[in-house]
Amino acid sequence: MSSIAKKRPREGIGSPGVRGGFDRSDQIWTAPLSRCHYGLNGSIIALGHSNGSVTMWKPTSTAPLVKMLTHHGPVSALSFHSTGHLMATAGTDWKIKIWDLRKFEVLQSLPGHAKTLDFSQKGLLATSSSSFIQILGDFLGSQNFSCYVTHSIAKGYQIQKVLFRPYEDVLGLGRSIGWSLILIPGSGEPNFDSWVANPFETPKQRREKEVRSLLDKLPPETIMLDPTKNGNLRPPTRRREKPSKEERQSIDGSRSCRCQEQRFN
């Protein structure tokens, strides 16, 4: 999947982006790329464009699976929620939006500018612009994010990237010079699944995990936007039973009675 999306060095205003496929072919987009982010399952890639749209692609698609107009300007950052149903985007129009990917609708629009976004395992959203960091959280479960923690670094340093550390209450900050860590209580998942991520796995378990992941890997043509629908069966259709002989006779008799009544009327 590392060769699905690339960014061509800007040769000028309006330079297009490039998509490389498994057949070594490239496809040129008319809208320049501004941001690139993988989905949670690693099979879908979301691209933010300078015209304010976000497109989602899979390896075998020649057209975007989804195309959304998210902002009235270039998309500066985007990130996916751990559940896969929410997406956060930020644009140069000074708005941070929370999207419902099941209905592709805006759930909340917040004022502010963000250069980088990242969701934690527990659903906290980290936003950063210049030397200021803000952590948003949905504490009531109503998908209404509010301010949780704010943090700022020394002036003159620019924050380039924020990223939560899995299974720990730690947020990593990539600055213009070096990096640092800050504590964000309640951001990491306290209970880990050894079948998904085992921090105490042995070298033998790690090798077996790699083999198992290769065996369970889906073919590119079976990748879907919603991975939960993959492998589901179509519900059985109810067959219409033929009426019995007695039912047909009663239906014919009722029809003949109606015809006679209409004639007399």
Task: Please characterize this protein's 3D structure.
The protein has 265 residues and is mainly beta. Helices cover 12% and strands 35% of the residues. It contains 2 helices and 18 strands. It has helices at residues 203-215, 245-264, and strands spanning 5-6, 18-20, 26-28, 33-38, 45-49, 53-57, 66-69, 75-80, 86-91, 95-100, 105-111, 116-119, 125-129, 132-137, 146-152, 159-164, 170-175, 179-183. Strands 4-5-6-7 form a 4-stranded antiparallel β-sheet, with no helix packed on it. Strands 8-9-10-11 form a 4-stranded antiparallel β-sheet, with no helix packed on it. The protein has a 4-stranded antiparallel β-sheet with strand order 12-13-14-15, with no helix packed on it. β14 and β15 form a beta hairpin. The radius of gyration is 27 Å and the shape is elongated. Residues 1-19 and 21-26 have low confidence and may be disordered.
